[in-house]
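Data deposition worksheet. Section B asks for the primary sequence of the deposited chain exactly as it was used as input, without tags or linkers unless they were present during the calculation. Section C holds the resulting structure in token form. Section D is free text for depositor observations; keep each observation to a single sentence. Incomplete worksheets are returned to the depositor.
Section A, Depositor: J.P.
Section B:
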Amino acid sequence: MKPPTLLLLLPLLSPALAWLPMEDWESGNVTASGGESECVCSVFLPDNVFPADRVQHMQQVTKDLMLEVEIHMNKLVHYKGKLEIFLGELKELSVRVAMLESDPDKYIKLDFELLRIELREFEALVSQLKESLNSSSPVFDSLYTEIHNMSLIVDQLETYDKSNLEVIRIEFAKLQRKLEECLREEDIIKPDIGNCNHTGIMSVSRPMLVQLNAHLNAGYKFGGWGKDSKPVRGHESMYWYGAYSTPSVYEFYLYPNYNKLILRSSFTHHGLPQGYEGTGNNYIIHGNTVYYQAAKPFRMSKLNLTSSVYSHREITKASERFTYTYSPNQYLDFSADEKGLWVMYATEQAKGKMIIAKIDEKSFGIEDEWTTSAFKPLVGNAFMVCGVMYATRPGDLRTEEIFYSYDTKTGEERHMSIPLQKFQESFVNLHYNPTDQKLYMYNDGYYVSYNVRFNKE
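Section C:
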């Protein structure tokens, strides 16, 4: 017996069909034809039963779903780098939670104070946005409400007892193990600190914003921050910071560890005496010594933080006419990597092209120098990694691009396109640290850092 074809189509028709009165249905009969039975049904249907509007709606929903899937697929491209970042953050959180075993009171005070500081900074940022836009809207009111609610949650969490914090520590450990498994599956190689067994930078992570500068003032746009690139014994965790409202350099702050930097506590202040002030912002600390650009007369200078002894050397070739795109008065750019200490500058003889010079740390003199093809006024900033200079240039308001490299060992020049996302448009200090293979940027008053990934092939 053949299936009643029309009845199979009934579920596709309008739901209104199911509610037709019984008298609107006509009876069916069965006839025989060629030895087979055939079911013939007749039914009364309204003229407007085909769900055209529902079909159009489903087509639109399908398009929306396809767009949503495409968006999520694009997000997956960034997951590998994010896993590396999350693993580092979880390791740090695990260490901080583990402090509970030795001193639970210290842990609670430290951790929740950090959260309160971050919330205060969010509130300050909302105020700045509101003032800059010169308007009030429900969005800002909503943000203030959320910040207030988060503050209440922090107060509640602070009352948790030791057993609850122990549960958190266990959960952190589980997440850390899962992330490590994911990283192994993705063949992510752990950083090989101190070695150069790679062919150069392959990519840079998304920016990790720490906070607004220690002055909590966005007006301090000039400055820098980071770690000692060659720490002395006992100061491996030290962080340094210096910031100013002009391109002048006259003081530095040293913090014993990352948490003290965030809390702006237990710091050591070093002020430069009259006649030793600097200018420009590409200074670094290497071997517990600050290397910076002296102002008058123009020369490279260093201050030993242990002995408080100053030393100066003039580079007669260096020109005061060429500076970076974002950095006024930045004629000497100090950098340190796995190969030692460097300084970069431009000369009149090279017509503004950048020169790489290797510094002898003992004599504070120039060992050797190399002329590149990078025209300094078009460069945003530069840094050294394993004896290779990398130069950046502006992209758009939120993107910088590593576009050029010069290898001092082989003399090879390369052009590339490695994006470097920025939190703010301009920055005045960008340098690489070989102790953790990170880039440190002072981005318009904010502490920002990046993980660097190398090509191991």
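Section D:
The helical segments are 5-9, 52-76, 79-98, 104-133, 138-157, 162-185, 258-263.
The CA atoms of residues 235 and 256 lie 7 Å apart.
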